[in-house]
Amino acid sequence: MDIVDSGEHGTLVTRRSGPLDGEVRIGGAKNSVLKLMAACLLAEGRHVLANVPDISDVSLMCELLEAMGVTVTRADHRLVIDVPAELNTEAPYHLVERMRASIVVLGPLLGRFGTARVALPGGDDFGPRPIDMHLRALESLGATFSTAHGDISGTAAVLRGTEVVLEYPSVGATENVLMAAVRAKGRTLIVNPAREPEIGDLVEFLNRMGAEIGWAGDRLAIDGVDRLAPARAPEGYAVIADRIEAATYLAAAGICGGSVFLRHAVAGHMTMLIRKLTEMGMHIVADDEGVRATVTRRLSSADISTLPYPGLATDYKPFLVTLLTTAEGVGIVTENIFTGRFRYIDELRRMGADIRTEGHHAVVRGVERLSGAPVRAHDIRAGAALVMAGLAAEGETEIAGAAHIDRGYEDLAGKLAGLGATITRR
Ligand code: EPU
After folding, report:
1. pTM, 2 dp
2. Which CATH superfamily is domain 11-26+241-425 in?
């Protein structure tokens, strides 16, 4: 099937599909590569990253690094990042506004230069997205912050290792502290850090750059060093597989039926998800090469509650809600991470889903069939979930706002079409 990319504001058009059959290659993790790119700021020289997904958030992070004076070359899923001795330590609003993850340049800039100015990110479709924990944690290392004209400016004459307690295991705050503490004087102990696989990837990458970071039970211990250098990996440091992309294709198999092999997916990063999908009736097996999902019957409903890793990720929730819309029975979904992350539910309702929401809970009663309708993607994962719903719906579904999906998915339409789904891009 021809997939035509009509640019930024494309629309995806789906029809009821399945059973799916075949293999899909899972790429590098968006939520890891963006942080590894920021980590490169910590050392002058040439950094090489491999298994880099071809997604627009990576392009935005390239733009941000370039605005700071870095040279980035991108080809064949590799990035060559040349970091000069001096950098412009400012992240401007027009870039931060388009990608909230830009805030992770704060830690490395403070760590290496003792100064950083980053535009304050606004809220988004999940509701407010504060950075108070990032700032408090960096302050405990000795940084001071002031805000003016929508920017946050940080300075640190010297960062000193100390105990940093995160009252919640925030992914972004953990990353910012890690990337500042690697250059602090002495030992930093992060109590209650995030433990997502992407944090593990960042730790590994920083250690390859010469950092000294280790796990002390469920805490992170960082012994500051005077100098970091690009990780020695001639072929490039390979980004870990994207567990959320993998979850998307698991959901596609769940909703369309069939048998799908996810090459490079790491089952150990998705333990809770695989348990939940198995409970719902999917058959999932894994080996060193990837994960196979087989679905031969209508799924059964289950209750779902999102939690920080190793709990069920909030990013999986839109897919799980979509699976529940056509599963047998009633499922109760509780969102504990981003309480505003229910907006796509109105779109699912337009497709005939029976969902009631109350605060951060949703009650989903499975229906026999969804019905195709024009809908709009408001964020990456919600967009992908609407595509899944479209594959289960009678008639045609038009998903506007495909640019959101492109932020985090390399060729979602092409990969689904390769599995036999009916999907085109306009
Ligand atoms: N929070 C605060 N204050 C802070 C930081 C976070 O109140 O200073 C709150 C947030 O508002 C939220 C919760 O803590 O309610 C979790 O936020 P966290 O910092 O853990 O998330 P993040 O770093 O902003 C990353 C991913 C998200 C993913 C979350 C949770 C990236 C670029 N983003 O966000 O992924 O949902 O962790 O796992 O890594 C996506 O890929 O589409 C995506 C949104």
Report:
1. 0.96
2. Enolpyruvate transferase domain (3.65.10.10)
